[in-house]
Amino acid sequence: MMSTFKDEVLSRRTFAIISHPDAGKTTLTEKLLLFGGAIRDAGTVKGKKTGKYATSDWMEIEKQRGISVTSSVMQFEYNKAKINILDTPGHQDFSEDTYRTLTAVDSAVMIIDSAKGIEDQTLKLFKVCRMRGIPIFTFINKLDRQGKMPLELLAELEEVMGIESYPMNWPIGMGKEFLGIYDRFNNRIEQFRVDEEDRFLELNDEGEINGDHSLKQSGLYEQTLEEIMLLNEAGNEFSRDRIASGDLTPVFFGSALTNFGVQTFLESYLQFAPTPQPRESTIGEINPLTEDFSGFIFKIQANMNPAHRDRIAFLRICSGKFERGMSVNIPRLGKQVKLAQSTQFMADDRSTVNEAVSGDIIGIYDPGTYQIGDTLTSDKNGFQFERLPQFTPELFVRVTAKNVMKQKHFHKGIQQLVQEGAIQLFKTVKTDEYLLGAVGQLQFEVFEHRMKNEYNTEVLMERLGSKIARWVEGEEHYDNLSSSRSLLVKDRYEHQVFLFENEFALRWFQDKNPDVPLYNPMDQQ
Ligand code: G4P
Fold first, then answer.
1. 402 annotated ligand-binding residue
2. Rounded to the nearest whole angstrom, what is the distance from the C-alpha of residue 215 to the centroid of ligand 1?
3. Using CA of residue 435, residue 440, residue 443, residue 444, what is the dihedral sign?
4. How far is the CA of 26 from the centre of ligand 1 (A)?
5. What's the CA-to-centroid distance between 355 and ligand 1, angstroms?
6. Beta bridge partners of 107
7. Model confidence pLDDT, tens digit, residues 202-226
């Protein structure tokens, strides 16, 4: 039977994995793709450690780093669900794109290393998910190693992240004594390192093993039953609605490396993860089941082929069906474009896509037309999706043109890259110097590279290090409060922003000037 448009949309699950480097994102992604049959070998997702790179010709920096477009979006099918995984690069590759990717998903999977607990980058990405009300599914990884106690990890989720949790399963021991997981949700035990046919032990109505079993000899089994009782009595209640609103995170324990607990996780995830969600626009909410096509650009990857200066714009489809060759409006430009060259991403490949529906992510060829945040729609009246959030930069450099004769190119390049969303631009209030702000070092490198390659301008960048940026509300001017420890600058919309040397300088400033209305845009959206 032919599936209808509605069936197609409802089969989509689009998520990003958020984690700190080394928590196991690559390993888990690979296992998921293996289940979906999208790849045959582990080690295909990212060449980081295996030395394998997908063959394509993307930007040099990315080649050196082993990031590729293909690993930015991966699609696979499992039990009739069509799953889109979006990569959120980390470490030195962390950038505003990493945050912006989270605007294009309907849910997030958070991986936590059981020995390390909640780490810095996970927390940053988590905050963006919270700000947007994105449902979060937690996978606590590396149970085959000795880690923190599970109750301690749950407490960390609540205390550090402020999110309530519901453990869907619970580890029986860990490290050398890891015996498996007690699956509360499916009322069964999944045994570690036990053959497939004997791996699952169904439990009785009391949640215990019927009859004799070697597991019962272990003190760990008794201990697990006690902990489960504690969770049943004192833990949070399971609530589908609270998962959907992002207020409760279902927690799964497992070991991605040994492929343990991954399938159980995937199956439960598919049961509770949201289908494509509606998006706010200037004409109200756009329903993903609406047949008129619409979507927005959340990322532009430039210079994948230096010879052609081509770029790919990543489009999240929000309603209707994409068909290759279709014409759409870009309301920002009041212009129609034909989407002739389009790409879909598979695990280690990219191929031309002819059709895609709400929830899918496709790449479209960008001859320099698009900006991050652009709406594309087949609606003649041209609505726009809500503006993408602004992310508070943390790193700053002072930038000048190396060759003073190239000022014109320099200004043009900066202006376009800023508009495109590659980097944020500030000007010092007193001296009119240009500062660039970013959330990760990669953004500066990409900026420098693109200025040279696309605008033929070499730039000098003087590092200013990390700063705490706080915007100022209202129109009153505070030029007299600018100092080296609280530098006043203006953003590209002429809004005043103070750049503080550190937390201490910020607090000191607030104590001295309690009437200056400072705010962090990331706390407000
Ligand atoms: P990332 O993408 O989040 O950065 O993490 P990645 O999957 O690359 O995993 C980081 C390291 O953690 C890898 O080890 C990986 O093998 C290991 N790892 C991932 N999941 C598990 C798990 O469930 N149990 C254990 N014990 N280890 C796990 P590495 O030594 O850095 O790399 P490799 O040489 O093993 O590839």
1. no
2. 29
3. positive
4. 8
5. 36
6. 15
7. 999 999 998 888 888 899 999 999 9
| Residue 96: pLDDT over 80 | yes
Nearest to 88 by CA among 28, 168, 8: 28
68-86: average pLDDT: 81
User: Distance between CA atoms of 177 and 285, rounded to whole angstroms?
Assistant: 51
Residues, the chain, total? 525
In sequence order, what DSSP letters do the residues of 367-383 get, joined into one string? SS---TT-EEES-TT--
Å from CA of 16 to ligand 1 middle: 18
Q: How far separated are the first and last CA of the chain, in Å rounded?
A: 44
Interatomic CA distance for residues 280 and 79, integer angstroms:
30
Residue nearest atom 25 in ligand 1 by C-alpha distance? 142
Backbone angles phi, psi at 292, to 5 degrees: -70, 135
362-399 per-position pLDDT tens digit:
888 888 888 899 999 998 878 999 988 889 999 999 99
301 CA distance to ligand 1 middle (Å):
27
Q: pLDDT category, 351, cuts 50, 70, 90? A: low
- CA–centroid distance for 321 within its chain: 24
Of 363, 162, 360, 386, which Cα lies nearest the Cα of 284?
386
**Average per-residue pLDDT for the chain:** 88
What Cα–Cα distance (Å) separates residue 169 from each residue in 38, 255, 288, 340, 344? 27, 13, 33, 47, 35
Say whether 20 counts as a known binding-site residue: yes
Three-state secondary structure call for residue 352: strand
Residue nearest to atom 1 of ligand 1 (CA): 22
Q: How many Å lie between the centroid of ligand 1 and the Cα of residue 27?
A: 6
Q: Is 517 annotated as a binding-site member?
A: no
Quick one: which of 232, 248, 306 has its CA closest to 59? 306
- Which residues fall within 8 angstroms of residue 299, CB to CB, at 6 or more apart? 72, 97, 100, 101, 104, 313, 314, 372
Average confidence (pLDDT) over 82-106: 87
> How does DSSP assign 473-504, residue by residue?
-SS---GGG--SSEEEEEETTS-EEEEESSHH
Q: Whose CA is nearest to atom 14 of ligand 1?
A: 22
Q: What is the pLDDT of residues 489-518, one digit of tens each?
A: 999 999 999 999 999 999 999 999 999 999
Strand, coil or helix: what is 254? Answer: coil
Predicted local confidence at residue 419, as pLDDT: 86
Q: How far is CA 18 from CA 56, 86, 99, 113, 262, in A?
A: 26, 10, 10, 12, 16
**Residue 14, marked binder:** no
Instruction: Confirm or reject: Cβ of 392 under 6 Å from ligand 1.
Output: no
pLDDT digits (tens, 9 = 90+) for 269-322: 999 999 999 999 999 999 999 999 999 999 887 655 555 566 788 999 999 999
Atom of ligand 1 nearest to the CA of 21: 4
d(CA 137, CA 125): 13
Atom number in ligand 1 closest to CA 258 = 23
213 appears as a binding residue in the annotation: no
